[in-house]
Protein backbone atom coordinates (compact mmCIF):
# COMPACT_ATOMS: atom_id res chain seq x y z
CA UNK A 1 0.00 0.00 0.00
CA UNK A 2 2.97 2.32 0.40
CA UNK A 3 3.46 2.61 -3.37
CA UNK A 4 -0.26 3.35 -3.74
CA UNK A 5 -0.05 6.19 -1.21
CA UNK A 6 3.09 7.57 -2.86
CA UNK A 7 1.52 7.52 -6.31
CA UNK A 8 -1.71 9.06 -5.04
CA UNK A 9 0.19 11.87 -3.32
CA UNK A 10 2.13 12.64 -6.46
CA UNK A 11 -1.04 12.58 -8.56
CA UNK A 12 -2.76 15.00 -6.19
CA UNK A 13 0.13 17.42 -6.48
CA UNK A 14 0.06 17.24 -10.28
CA UNK A 15 -3.70 17.74 -10.46
CA UNK A 16 -3.61 20.69 -8.07
CA UNK A 17 -1.29 22.60 -10.41
CA UNK A 18 -3.91 23.69 -12.93
CA UNK A 19 -2.72 26.27 -15.44
CA UNK A 20 -4.85 29.23 -16.47
CA UNK A 21 -4.76 31.56 -19.40
CA UNK A 22 -5.19 35.28 -19.22
CA UNK A 23 -8.32 37.18 -20.07
CA UNK A 24 -9.17 37.58 -23.71
CA UNK A 25 -7.88 40.69 -25.42
CA UNK A 26 -10.65 43.32 -25.65
CA UNK A 27 -12.08 43.85 -29.10
CA UNK A 28 -10.71 46.85 -30.96
CA UNK A 29 -12.96 49.86 -31.50
CA UNK A 30 -15.14 50.02 -34.57
CA UNK A 31 -12.90 52.74 -35.97
CA UNK A 32 -9.87 50.46 -36.04
CA UNK A 33 -8.75 49.41 -39.54
CA UNK A 34 -8.77 45.70 -38.62
CA UNK A 35 -10.04 43.67 -35.68
CA UNK A 36 -7.75 41.71 -33.39
CA UNK A 37 -7.27 38.07 -34.28
CA UNK A 38 -8.24 35.72 -31.42
CA UNK A 39 -5.05 34.61 -29.69
CA UNK A 40 -5.65 30.96 -30.45
CA UNK A 41 -5.62 31.67 -34.19
CA UNK A 42 -2.43 33.74 -34.32
CA UNK A 43 0.80 31.68 -34.31
CA UNK A 44 2.64 34.59 -32.74
CA UNK A 45 0.37 35.04 -29.73
CA UNK A 46 -1.40 31.71 -29.30
CA UNK A 47 -1.20 30.25 -25.79
CA UNK A 48 0.35 26.81 -25.51
CA UNK A 49 -2.63 24.48 -25.92
CA UNK A 50 -0.91 21.91 -23.70
CA UNK A 51 0.44 23.98 -20.79
CA UNK A 52 2.73 22.32 -18.29
CA UNK A 53 1.17 21.72 -14.89
CA UNK A 54 4.39 20.25 -13.48
CA UNK A 55 5.19 21.27 -9.93
CA UNK A 56 8.21 19.94 -8.02
CA UNK A 57 7.43 17.49 -5.28
CA UNK A 58 8.03 18.60 -1.69
CA UNK A 59 11.71 18.55 -0.80
CA UNK A 60 13.86 18.93 2.30
CA UNK A 61 17.18 20.80 2.58
CA UNK A 62 19.72 18.04 1.97
CA UNK A 63 23.49 17.68 1.85
CA UNK A 64 25.28 14.68 0.35
CA UNK A 65 28.73 14.61 1.94
CA UNK A 66 31.98 12.75 1.34
CA UNK A 67 31.22 11.47 -2.18
CA UNK A 68 33.23 11.66 -5.38
CA UNK A 69 31.33 14.28 -7.38
CA UNK A 70 31.27 14.57 -11.17
CA UNK A 71 29.75 17.99 -11.82
CA UNK A 72 29.49 17.64 -15.66
CA UNK A 73 31.32 20.96 -15.91
CA UNK A 74 34.71 19.23 -16.24
CA UNK A 75 35.32 18.73 -12.52
CA UNK A 76 35.85 15.58 -10.48
CA UNK A 77 35.76 16.41 -6.77
CA UNK A 78 37.04 13.90 -4.22
CA UNK A 79 35.39 14.12 -0.82
CA UNK A 80 32.79 16.42 -2.26
CA UNK A 81 29.58 17.83 -0.87
CA UNK A 82 26.42 18.63 -2.83
CA UNK A 83 23.95 20.90 -1.04
CA UNK A 84 20.32 21.17 -2.17
CA UNK A 85 17.62 23.54 -0.98
CA UNK A 86 14.21 24.60 -2.33
CA UNK A 87 14.61 22.39 -5.38
CA UNK A 88 17.91 23.97 -6.46
CA UNK A 89 21.60 23.21 -6.16
CA UNK A 90 22.83 25.50 -3.39
CA UNK A 91 26.54 24.64 -3.24
CA UNK A 92 29.06 22.09 -4.56
CA UNK A 93 32.62 21.71 -3.34
CA UNK A 94 35.27 19.68 -1.57
CA UNK A 95 35.02 19.33 2.18
CA UNK A 96 31.97 21.56 2.61
CA UNK A 97 30.18 21.09 5.92
CA UNK A 98 26.48 20.35 5.86
CA UNK A 99 24.51 23.42 6.98
CA UNK A 100 22.70 23.15 10.29
CA UNK A 101 19.23 21.64 10.04
CA UNK A 102 19.87 19.90 6.69
CA UNK A 103 19.29 16.20 6.13
CA UNK A 104 22.75 14.64 5.78
CA UNK A 105 23.36 11.74 3.40
CA UNK A 106 26.62 9.84 3.83
CA UNK A 107 28.26 9.66 0.42
CA UNK A 108 31.57 8.13 1.46
CA UNK A 109 32.65 5.48 -1.05
CA UNK A 110 29.86 6.59 -3.41
CA UNK A 111 29.62 8.90 -6.42
CA UNK A 112 27.33 11.79 -7.33
CA UNK A 113 26.39 13.00 -10.82
CA UNK A 114 23.66 15.17 -12.29
CA UNK A 115 20.50 13.29 -13.17
CA UNK A 116 20.72 11.07 -16.25
CA UNK A 117 19.04 12.62 -19.30
CA UNK A 118 17.89 10.60 -22.29
CA UNK A 119 17.65 12.75 -25.41
CA UNK A 120 15.95 10.07 -27.52
CA UNK A 121 13.16 8.09 -25.91
CA UNK A 122 9.81 6.68 -26.99
CA UNK A 123 8.54 5.88 -23.50
CA UNK A 124 4.87 6.66 -23.20
CA UNK A 125 4.25 6.52 -26.95
CA UNK A 126 5.65 3.01 -27.52
CA UNK A 127 5.03 1.87 -23.95
CA UNK A 128 4.74 -1.41 -22.12
CA UNK A 129 2.65 -3.43 -22.59
CA UNK A 130 3.51 -3.39 -26.29
CA UNK A 131 0.06 -3.84 -27.78
CA UNK A 132 -1.38 -2.21 -30.94
CA UNK A 133 -3.76 0.04 -29.01
CA UNK A 134 -0.78 1.75 -27.34
CA UNK A 135 1.53 2.13 -30.36
CA UNK A 136 1.15 5.86 -30.95
CA UNK A 137 4.60 7.08 -31.98
CA UNK A 138 4.27 7.19 -35.78
CA UNK A 139 1.50 8.92 -37.73
CA UNK A 140 2.44 7.21 -40.99
CA UNK A 141 -0.28 8.60 -43.21
CA UNK A 142 1.82 11.22 -44.99
CA UNK A 143 5.56 11.84 -45.32
CA UNK A 144 5.05 15.24 -43.70
CA UNK A 145 3.23 15.10 -40.37
CA UNK A 146 4.88 18.13 -38.76
CA UNK A 147 1.42 19.02 -37.47
CA UNK A 148 1.30 16.24 -34.85
CA UNK A 149 2.63 16.68 -31.31
CA UNK A 150 3.93 13.59 -29.54
CA UNK A 151 2.62 14.79 -26.17
CA UNK A 152 -0.90 14.19 -27.50
CA UNK A 153 0.02 10.47 -27.58
CA UNK A 154 1.99 10.37 -24.33
CA UNK A 155 0.69 7.79 -21.83
CA UNK A 156 2.20 8.81 -18.48
CA UNK A 157 1.37 5.48 -16.84
CA UNK A 158 3.98 3.60 -18.90
CA UNK A 159 5.83 1.47 -16.31
CA UNK A 160 9.03 2.24 -18.24
CA UNK A 161 9.18 5.66 -16.62
CA UNK A 162 9.51 4.01 -13.20
CA UNK A 163 12.28 1.63 -14.26
CA UNK A 164 14.12 4.52 -15.92
CA UNK A 165 13.86 6.57 -12.72
CA UNK A 166 15.35 3.67 -10.77
CA UNK A 167 18.34 3.94 -13.13
CA UNK A 168 18.84 7.64 -12.42
CA UNK A 169 16.91 9.14 -15.36
CA UNK A 170 15.46 12.50 -14.32
CA UNK A 171 14.54 14.07 -17.70
CA UNK A 172 13.74 12.72 -21.16
CA UNK A 173 12.99 13.95 -24.64
CA UNK A 174 10.08 11.95 -26.05
CA UNK A 175 10.16 11.81 -29.85
CA UNK A 176 7.79 10.64 -32.58
CA UNK A 177 9.04 7.77 -34.70
CA UNK A 178 11.12 7.98 -37.87
CA UNK A 179 8.73 6.71 -40.54
CA UNK A 180 8.12 10.16 -42.04
CA UNK A 181 10.33 12.93 -43.40
CA UNK A 182 8.77 15.16 -40.72
CA UNK A 183 7.47 13.11 -37.80
CA UNK A 184 6.09 15.89 -35.60
CA UNK A 185 7.00 17.74 -32.42
CA UNK A 186 8.93 16.22 -29.55
CA UNK A 187 8.32 17.02 -25.88
CA UNK A 188 10.68 17.17 -22.91
CA UNK A 189 9.45 15.75 -19.61
CA UNK A 190 10.60 15.47 -16.01
CA UNK A 191 10.57 11.83 -14.96
CA UNK A 192 8.10 12.06 -12.10
CA UNK A 193 5.02 9.88 -11.52
CA UNK A 194 1.98 11.66 -12.95
CA UNK A 195 -1.47 10.91 -14.33
CA UNK A 196 -1.29 13.44 -17.18
CA UNK A 197 1.33 14.35 -19.74
CA UNK A 198 0.99 17.96 -18.63
CA UNK A 199 2.02 16.92 -15.13
CA UNK A 200 5.35 15.67 -16.48
CA UNK A 201 6.02 18.41 -19.02
CA UNK A 202 9.31 20.23 -18.41
CA UNK A 203 8.41 23.91 -17.84
CA UNK A 204 9.90 26.23 -20.43
CA UNK A 205 11.62 23.53 -22.49
CA UNK A 206 11.56 24.26 -26.24
CA UNK A 207 9.86 21.92 -28.65
CA UNK A 208 11.84 19.81 -31.08
CA UNK A 209 10.92 18.78 -34.62
CA UNK A 210 11.64 15.14 -35.43
CA UNK A 211 12.95 14.75 -38.97
CA UNK A 212 14.19 11.54 -40.58
CA UNK A 213 16.44 10.92 -43.52
CA UNK A 214 17.62 7.66 -45.04
CA UNK A 215 15.89 4.33 -45.40
CA UNK A 216 12.80 4.67 -43.25
CA UNK A 217 10.68 7.24 -45.14
CA UNK A 218 11.53 5.97 -48.62
CA UNK A 219 10.88 2.38 -47.57
CA UNK A 220 7.55 3.09 -45.90
CA UNK A 221 6.13 5.13 -48.78
CA UNK A 222 7.94 3.42 -51.65
CA UNK A 223 6.32 0.11 -50.83
CA UNK A 224 2.95 1.84 -51.15
CA UNK A 225 3.95 3.20 -54.60
CA UNK A 226 3.98 6.67 -53.10
CA UNK A 227 6.64 9.35 -52.78
CA UNK A 228 9.28 9.36 -51.42
CA UNK A 229 10.56 6.12 -52.86
CA UNK A 230 14.21 7.19 -53.18
CA UNK A 231 16.81 9.25 -51.37
CA UNK A 232 16.46 12.05 -53.92
CA UNK A 233 12.71 12.20 -53.29
CA UNK A 234 13.44 12.45 -49.58
CA UNK A 235 15.42 15.62 -50.18
CA UNK A 236 12.76 16.98 -52.55
CA UNK A 237 10.20 16.48 -49.78
CA UNK A 238 12.27 18.48 -47.28
CA UNK A 239 12.88 21.33 -49.71
CA UNK A 240 9.26 21.60 -50.79
CA UNK A 241 8.11 21.69 -47.18
CA UNK A 242 10.56 24.47 -46.28
CA UNK A 243 9.52 26.50 -49.32
CA UNK A 244 5.89 26.22 -48.21
CA UNK A 245 6.87 27.18 -44.66
CA UNK A 246 8.83 30.23 -45.82
CA UNK A 247 5.84 31.36 -47.89
CA UNK A 248 3.52 30.87 -44.88
CA UNK A 249 5.88 32.86 -42.66
CA UNK A 250 5.99 35.70 -45.20
CA UNK A 251 2.17 35.88 -45.26
CA UNK A 252 2.08 36.27 -41.49
CA UNK A 253 4.91 38.81 -41.52
CA UNK A 254 3.13 40.83 -44.22
CA UNK A 255 -0.13 40.70 -42.25
CA UNK A 256 1.53 42.02 -39.11
CA UNK A 257 3.43 44.71 -41.00
CA UNK A 258 0.14 46.00 -42.43
CA UNK A 259 -1.45 46.01 -39.00
CA UNK A 260 1.51 47.93 -37.59
CA UNK A 261 1.03 50.54 -40.32
CA UNK A 262 -2.67 50.81 -39.45
CA UNK A 263 -3.80 49.24 -42.73
CA UNK A 264 -6.76 46.88 -43.04
CA UNK A 265 -5.50 43.31 -43.26
CA UNK A 266 -7.03 39.84 -43.31
CA UNK A 267 -4.94 37.26 -41.46
CA UNK A 268 -3.82 34.05 -43.15
CA UNK A 269 -5.57 30.88 -42.05
CA UNK A 270 -3.57 28.97 -39.47
CA UNK A 271 -1.98 25.72 -40.64
CA UNK A 272 -0.74 23.49 -37.82
CA UNK A 273 1.79 21.73 -40.04
CA UNK A 274 3.29 25.01 -41.23
CA UNK A 275 3.17 26.49 -37.71
CA UNK A 276 5.72 23.91 -36.63
CA UNK A 277 7.97 24.44 -39.65
CA UNK A 278 7.73 28.21 -39.24
CA UNK A 279 8.77 27.75 -35.61
CA UNK A 280 11.96 26.08 -36.84
CA UNK A 281 12.67 28.89 -39.31
CA UNK A 282 12.22 31.42 -36.50
CA UNK A 283 14.63 29.51 -34.27
CA UNK A 284 11.97 28.61 -31.70
CA UNK A 285 11.84 24.84 -32.37
CA UNK A 286 14.95 22.63 -32.39
CA UNK A 287 15.60 20.18 -35.23
CA UNK A 288 16.21 16.63 -33.99
CA UNK A 289 17.24 14.71 -37.12
CA UNK A 290 17.27 10.89 -37.37
CA UNK A 291 20.16 10.17 -39.76
CA UNK A 292 22.69 7.33 -39.91
CA UNK A 293 25.08 7.97 -42.82
CA UNK A 294 27.77 10.61 -43.00
CA UNK A 295 26.97 11.64 -46.58
CA UNK A 296 23.28 12.08 -45.77
CA UNK A 297 24.06 14.14 -42.68
CA UNK A 298 26.16 16.43 -44.89
CA UNK A 299 23.19 16.75 -47.28
CA UNK A 300 20.85 17.64 -44.43
CA UNK A 301 23.27 20.36 -43.34
CA UNK A 302 23.18 21.78 -46.89
CA UNK A 303 19.37 21.77 -46.84
CA UNK A 304 19.41 23.60 -43.49
CA UNK A 305 21.73 26.26 -44.91
CA UNK A 306 19.54 26.68 -48.00
CA UNK A 307 16.54 27.56 -45.84
CA UNK A 308 18.25 29.24 -42.92
CA UNK A 309 17.62 26.89 -40.02
CA UNK A 310 20.01 24.92 -37.79
CA UNK A 311 20.21 21.19 -37.16
CA UNK A 312 20.54 20.79 -33.40
CA UNK A 313 21.44 17.10 -33.38
CA UNK A 314 21.73 14.03 -35.57
CA UNK A 315 20.25 10.98 -33.85
CA UNK A 316 21.71 7.47 -34.16
CA UNK A 317 24.39 8.91 -36.48
CA UNK A 318 26.57 5.78 -36.57
CA UNK A 319 28.72 7.30 -39.35
CA UNK A 320 29.25 10.60 -37.58
CA UNK A 321 32.96 9.78 -37.34
CA UNK A 322 33.23 10.24 -41.12
CA UNK A 323 32.21 13.91 -40.89
CA UNK A 324 33.34 14.68 -37.34
CA UNK A 325 35.16 17.83 -38.47
CA UNK A 326 31.97 19.16 -40.11
CA UNK A 327 29.88 18.41 -37.02
CA UNK A 328 32.39 20.22 -34.82
CA UNK A 329 32.44 23.24 -37.12
CA UNK A 330 28.64 23.41 -37.29
CA UNK A 331 28.18 22.79 -33.53
CA UNK A 332 25.83 19.86 -34.15
CA UNK A 333 25.46 17.18 -31.48
CA UNK A 334 25.74 13.48 -32.28
CA UNK A 335 23.27 11.38 -30.27
CA UNK A 336 24.27 7.75 -30.64
CA UNK A 337 24.96 4.40 -28.99
CA UNK A 338 28.24 2.74 -28.08
CA UNK A 339 28.01 -0.15 -30.53
CA UNK A 340 24.58 -0.62 -32.14
CA UNK A 341 25.54 -1.26 -35.75
CA UNK A 342 24.85 -3.56 -38.66
CA UNK A 343 21.14 -4.12 -38.08
CA UNK A 344 20.27 -2.52 -41.43
CA UNK A 345 22.21 -1.27 -44.44
CA UNK A 346 22.48 2.35 -43.37
CA UNK A 347 23.88 1.13 -40.05
CA UNK A 348 26.35 -1.27 -41.62
CA UNK A 349 29.37 1.05 -41.47
CA UNK A 350 29.01 1.92 -37.80
CA UNK A 351 32.01 1.27 -35.59
CA UNK A 352 32.48 1.08 -31.83
CA UNK A 353 34.93 3.99 -32.04
CA UNK A 354 32.30 6.39 -33.39
CA UNK A 355 31.61 8.37 -30.21
CA UNK A 356 35.24 8.78 -29.08
CA UNK A 357 36.35 9.82 -32.58
CA UNK A 358 33.64 12.47 -32.77
CA UNK A 359 34.51 13.70 -29.26
CA UNK A 360 38.20 13.80 -30.19
CA UNK A 361 37.33 16.10 -33.10
CA UNK A 362 35.80 18.57 -30.65
CA UNK A 363 32.14 17.83 -31.37
CA UNK A 364 29.27 17.28 -28.93
CA UNK A 365 28.53 13.63 -28.06
CA UNK A 366 25.33 12.33 -26.45
CA UNK A 367 24.64 8.72 -25.54
CA UNK A 368 20.94 8.02 -26.07
CA UNK A 369 18.73 4.96 -25.74
CA UNK A 370 15.87 4.69 -28.29
CA UNK A 371 14.97 1.69 -26.14
CA UNK A 372 13.11 0.95 -22.91
CA UNK A 373 15.88 -1.36 -21.66
CA UNK A 374 18.95 0.64 -22.66
CA UNK A 375 17.56 3.75 -20.98
CA UNK A 376 18.30 1.91 -17.72
CA UNK A 377 22.00 1.64 -18.62
CA UNK A 378 23.02 4.93 -20.22
CA UNK A 379 25.91 5.40 -17.80
CA UNK A 380 27.25 1.95 -18.67
CA UNK A 381 26.64 2.46 -22.40
CA UNK A 382 28.81 5.56 -22.05
CA UNK A 383 31.45 3.49 -20.26
CA UNK A 384 31.53 1.06 -23.20
CA UNK A 385 32.15 3.95 -25.61
CA UNK A 386 34.88 5.34 -23.36
CA UNK A 387 36.54 1.91 -23.26
CA UNK A 388 36.48 1.75 -27.07
CA UNK A 389 38.21 5.12 -27.20
CA UNK A 390 40.86 3.91 -24.78
CA UNK A 391 41.61 0.94 -27.07
CA UNK A 392 42.13 3.46 -29.87
CA UNK A 393 44.46 5.58 -27.76
CA UNK A 394 41.87 8.27 -26.96
CA UNK A 395 41.75 8.83 -23.20
CA UNK A 396 38.45 10.41 -22.19
CA UNK A 397 38.38 11.52 -18.53
CA UNK A 398 35.32 10.59 -16.51
CA UNK A 399 34.78 14.28 -15.81
CA UNK A 400 34.23 14.73 -19.57
CA UNK A 401 32.45 11.46 -20.33
CA UNK A 402 29.77 12.16 -17.71
CA UNK A 403 28.61 15.03 -19.92
CA UNK A 404 27.54 12.49 -22.55
CA UNK A 405 24.52 11.44 -20.48
CA UNK A 406 23.93 14.67 -18.52
CA UNK A 407 25.05 18.09 -19.79
CA UNK A 408 25.20 17.35 -23.51
CA UNK A 409 21.66 15.94 -23.82
CA UNK A 410 20.47 18.94 -21.80
CA UNK A 411 22.22 21.18 -24.34
CA UNK A 412 20.65 19.49 -27.37
CA UNK A 413 17.20 19.65 -25.73
CA UNK A 414 17.59 23.36 -24.99
CA UNK A 415 17.50 23.04 -21.17
CA UNK A 416 21.17 23.28 -20.19
CA UNK A 417 20.45 26.59 -18.49
CA UNK A 418 18.13 24.71 -16.11
CA UNK A 419 19.59 21.22 -15.60
CA UNK A 420 22.35 18.83 -16.70
CA UNK A 421 25.16 20.04 -14.41
CA UNK A 422 25.75 20.41 -10.69
CA UNK A 423 25.99 24.18 -10.44
CA UNK A 424 24.41 26.55 -7.91
CA UNK A 425 21.01 27.79 -9.05
CA UNK A 426 20.22 24.85 -11.33
CA UNK A 427 17.51 22.27 -10.74
CA UNK A 428 18.61 19.80 -8.09
CA UNK A 429 18.39 16.78 -10.39
CA UNK A 430 20.95 14.53 -8.70
CA UNK A 431 21.91 10.85 -8.55
CA UNK A 432 23.83 9.19 -5.72
CA UNK A 433 25.49 6.07 -7.15
CA UNK A 434 26.56 3.03 -5.14
CA UNK A 435 29.87 2.98 -7.00
CA UNK A 436 31.73 4.59 -9.89
CA UNK A 437 28.92 5.20 -12.44
CA UNK A 438 31.21 3.91 -15.19
CA UNK A 439 31.31 0.51 -13.48
CA UNK A 440 29.03 -2.33 -14.49
CA UNK A 441 28.29 -2.78 -10.78
CA UNK A 442 27.02 0.77 -10.18
CA UNK A 443 23.40 1.25 -9.16
CA UNK A 444 21.44 4.41 -8.49
CA UNK A 445 20.96 4.47 -4.71
CA UNK A 446 19.05 7.75 -4.49
CA UNK A 447 17.50 9.92 -7.20
CA UNK A 448 16.47 13.52 -6.59
CA UNK A 449 14.33 15.52 -9.01
CA UNK A 450 14.15 19.22 -8.21
CA UNK A 451 15.59 18.34 -4.82
CA UNK A 452 12.82 15.87 -3.96
CA UNK A 453 13.80 12.30 -3.21
CA UNK A 454 11.87 10.40 -5.87
CA UNK A 455 13.72 7.06 -5.71
CA UNK A 456 15.56 5.37 -2.86
CA UNK A 457 16.81 1.87 -3.46
CA UNK A 458 16.77 1.11 0.26
CA UNK A 459 13.28 2.46 0.96
CA UNK A 460 10.22 0.79 -0.62
CA UNK A 461 8.17 3.93 0.03
CA UNK A 462 10.05 5.49 -2.87
CA UNK A 463 9.57 2.61 -5.29
CA UNK A 464 6.71 4.19 -7.21
CA UNK A 465 4.60 2.01 -9.45
CA UNK A 466 2.49 3.14 -12.35
CA UNK A 467 -1.22 3.23 -11.61
CA UNK A 468 -1.49 0.77 -14.48
CA UNK A 469 0.36 -1.86 -12.42
CA UNK A 470 -1.43 -1.30 -9.13
CA UNK A 471 -3.41 -4.41 -8.33
CA UNK A 472 -1.67 -6.36 -11.09
CA UNK A 473 1.42 -7.39 -9.14
CA UNK A 474 1.48 -9.36 -5.83
CA UNK A 475 3.32 -6.65 -3.88
CA UNK A 476 0.74 -3.98 -4.82
CA UNK A 477 -2.30 -5.99 -3.70
What features would you describe in this structure?
- The chain is α/β, with parallel strands linked by helices and 477 residues long.
- It has a domain at 116-419: Metal-dependent hydrolases (TIM Barrel, Alpha-Beta Barrel), CATH 3.20.20.140.
- The protein has helices at residues 2-16, 160-165, 215-222, 231-260, 272-281, 294-307, 324-330, 354-360, 378-391, 398-401, 407-412, and strands at residues 62-70, 76-85, 88-94, 103-106, 111-114, 116-121, 169-174, 182-190, 208-212, 286-291, 311-316, 333-336, 365-367, 430-433, 444-449, 452-456.
- The strands form two sheets. Strands 1, 2, 3, 4, 5, 14, 15 and 16 form an eight-stranded mixed sheet that branches.
- The termini are close together.
Which descriptors would you attach to this protein?
single chain; alpha/beta; about 25% helix
